Amino acid sequence: IVDIPTIGIGASPACDGQILVLEDMLGLSPKPPKFVKEFATLGDQISGAAEAYAREVRARTFPAVENTYGMKKVK
């Protein structure tokens, strides 16, 4: 018998290590495979952040004074 470590991607918990696609485990994939466990659901948060950013840029409320650097006066 040769003892060789095995790495799985949804193979089984009997493997020595597991590979998981980051986008799947963070909840960014629309339909992750059965073997994926979502450890977060960031897709909705990312979409919401992008929409809020676009909305504020269009409304010209971002960037505000506190988000910018002023120009130094030239002597």
Could you explain the architecture of this structure?
It is built from 2 helices and 2 strands. It has 75 residues and is mainly α. It has one domain (7-67). The longest helix is centred in the middle third of the chain and has 17 residues, at 42-58. The protein is elongated.
The total tally of domains equals 1
The total count of strands amounts to: 2
What portion of the residues fall into strands of 2 or more residues? Answer: 5-15%
Shape: elongated
Rg over C-alpha atoms, rounded to the nearest angstrom: 23 Å
Low-confidence stretches: none
Distance, first to last CA: 82 Å
Report helical residue fraction: 25-40%
Counting helices, strands and paired strands, the structural category is mainly alpha
Number of helices: 2
The average pLDDT value, as a whole number, equals: 89
EC number: 2.1.2.11
InterPro entries: Pantoate_hydroxy_MeTrfase, Pyrv/PenolPyrv_kinase-like_dom, Pyrv_kinase-like_dom_sf
GO cellular component, one term: cytoplasm
Pfam family, one: Pantoate_transf
